[in-house]
Amino acid sequence: MKRSEAIERILENIGETDLALFTTGMISREAFSAKDRDANFYMIGSMGLLAAMGLGIALNKPDRRIVVIEGDGSALMSLGTLPLIAHEAPGNFIHVILDNEAYESTGNQPSISRGRDLAKHAEASGYAVVDRAEELAAFTEKFKQHCAATGPTCLVAKVGGRGSHSIPRIDLDPPDLKDRFRSQC
């Protein structure tokens, strides 16, 4: 499945009040292009910090579902956050890792995820539910199941396909993006 297809399915299946956080780079750009909404947060820079930020929001907003969408590079940079998420056990936390085995935004250098099972890391960390998906239909169904589950949950999806260079950059300044997202919390 293509990463952009997975992002589209996430955006089609999240609730109106769900807060969705997208990691830096092409994941944020593809989400912004597919369906921008005030309840989306696009990380600009700060690779590897999104899961911790999502955890903080989940703990402070237990009545809202928090969906963190990051790539394998970002997840690998913050592996220590996975056991912290599991320890804190926010029931409203969904962690989606879109694994293309590369740092696409910085030149498509290979990541080490090809030789590491990120779902096993989530399982070993103690996430309540962990799944893997390689096909779009399975990903969509599993994502819906994660939305109905008590978390924290983690869904790791192997994705392919490079992002289109025609996808625009996010045209929101970071302070405006912060203010817009904060108004939804």
Could you list some keywords that capture this structure?
185 residues; Rossmann fold; six-stranded parallel beta sheet; 41% helix
Description:
This protein is an alpha/beta fold. It has one domain (3-182): Rossmann fold (3-Layer(aba) Sandwich), CATH 3.40.50. The chain is built from eight helices and eight strands; from the N terminus they run αβαβαβααβββαβαβα. It has helices at 3-13, 26-35, 50-60, 72-77, 81-88, 118-125, 136-148, 174-182; strands at residues 19-22, 40-42, 66-71, 93-99, 102-103, 109-110, 129-133, 153-158. Helix 3 runs parallel beside helix 5. It starts with a helix and ends with a helix.
Task: Provide a brief overview of the structure.
The protein has 185 residues and is of the alpha/beta class. Helix content is 41%, strand content 19%.
Name of the CATH superfamily: Thiamin diphosphate (ThDP)-binding fold, Pyr/PP domains
The separation of the N and C termini measures 32 Å
Mean pLDDT: 93
Return the CATH architecture: 3-Layer(aba) Sandwich
Question: What's the topology here?
Answer:
Layout: H1 3-13, E1 19-22, H2 26-35, E2 40-42, H3 50-60, E3 66-71, H4 72-77, H5 81-88, E4 93-99, E5 102-103, E6 109-110, H6 118-125, E7 129-133, H7 136-148, E8 153-158, H8 174-182
Parallel strand pairs: 1-2, 1-3, 3-4, 4-8, 7-8
Antiparallel strand pairs: 5-6
Helix pairs in contact: 1-2, 1-7, 3-5, 5-6
